[in-house]
Amino acid sequence: MNPLEHQIHYPLGDALPSEGSSIEIAPGVHWIRMGLPFALDHINLWLLRDRQLGAGGVMLDGWTVVDCCIDSAATRAQWEQIFVNCLGGLPILRVIVTHMHPDHIGLAHWLCERWDVRLWISATDYNVARVAAYDPQGFGGEAGADFYALHGAQDPSFLDHVRGRASYFPTLVPALPPRFRRIMDGDMLDIGGRAWRCISGYGHAPEHMALYCAELTTLISGDMVLPRISTNVSVHASEPEANPLQLFLISLRRYLDLPESTLVLPSHGKPFTGLATRIAQLQDHHRERLIEILQAAHNRALSAADTLPILFQRKLDTHQMTFAMGEALAHLHYLWVNGKLERFLDQGGVHRFRATSQEYEHPRFD
Q1: HEC sequence for 42-96
Q2: What dotted CATH number matches 286-355?
Q3: Is the pLDDT confidence value at 359 over 60?
């Protein structure tokens, strides 16, 4: 166990839902866990007991689904088991997606069509997902390879991998529901007679939506707050001057007014309590990485590729490298936008960053 994990609490211990089943972890809130074919090998999905007014003014009992997993034959088979084992013969009435990443939205089209229901999602994430699904350069391709090469990642095998990712998103998200219901920060969703407040977050996804129920003191945090790993925060080729780390750190503050007893339901890892403690850990983690990068940039000009050994102590495969390069740029851009670093193009055509002052100052989260 990571030593920091001793500072938070897992109320269910080591219990995990088995394939095709669920665990009720709060009244009317059921936990599903599905496998993923990545290093991050699972995602948590949620079933919320619901009741909605149907056609003809008839009240319908059923379920709201929060997040969907990627589209694959294995995932569809797991959902078929869930339909039989966990719904109690009741229908799915609504699908909510926290954000547009493939492991969250991949099967939304299938679930919505299967149950003839609406997708609920932020407008920004819905439309970015449409671009990613139908733009072959959305998450890779030649544009992605050029972007990473510009920032110092020039290994031919890695760049070939990025070029091959042109179809990455549509492979996992082959279609999207043609219509959606927009959710926004502060919206109160009535799910089974309980109010769930939408809390927007930025930096990880365009407009991520977490859901908080005061009656249950429960937060579906999506990917914004995870118990064991830090959320990926990346700069992408489509927005090359972005400052997502600052957006992410500001967004974390939105959860600090929630009770410390809040049960946090993350998309990866196990449900936990100790939200403020975990947020402080994440803030400290990024502060430490920023300090290390700034110290290194006083000694030599750095490309994003140069910072990878500072940020990641483990060996990275080519798939992980794409996320790592995005994270490296997110930290460099935080310091650049806030005036701690300056950026220039070296003689080899690579963007590099160097400290703007000989005097070292710790970065602040203002």
Answers
A1: EEEEEEEEEEEECHHHCEEEEEEEECCCCCCHHHHHHHHHHHHHCCCCCCEEEEE
A2: 1.10.10.10
A3: no
